[in-house]
Specification:
Blueprint: H1 4-13, E1 34-40, H2 49-59, E2 60-69, H3 73-79
Parallel strand pairs: 1-2
Length: 85
């Protein structure tokens, strides 16, 4: 996240977690460092989705798991009954 206030609130709730401010595509997290990578409702907001997905893949150790959830625009347009704001 880029917002210091959001990170401060998160840190207060979860003091045992190391929160990092910055651009995910620019930060150095190493490669093959994680057993699990979780990405929830982010992909739709990323300009270069193929590069983002490749970056996620590089973070995972061999046999690692990516948990990814993103909106399905055609499905939402057809079935969503909640009007936009």
């Amino acid at each position: 996240d880029f917002c210091a206030e959001v990170l401060e609130r998160a840190q207060a709730r979860l003091p045992q977690v190391n929160f990092v401010a910055g651009d995910f595509m620019e930060l150095d997290f190493g490669e093959a460092q994680y057993d699990v990578v979780i990405c929830l409702e982010v992909l739709a907001h990323v300009a270069d989705q193929p590069a983002f997905m490749a970056r996620l893949a590089r973070l995972l150790r061999p046999g690692g798991v990516l948990m990814l959830a993103t909106q399905n625009a055609p499905l939402l347009q057809r079935w969503n009954k909640v009007p936009p704001p």
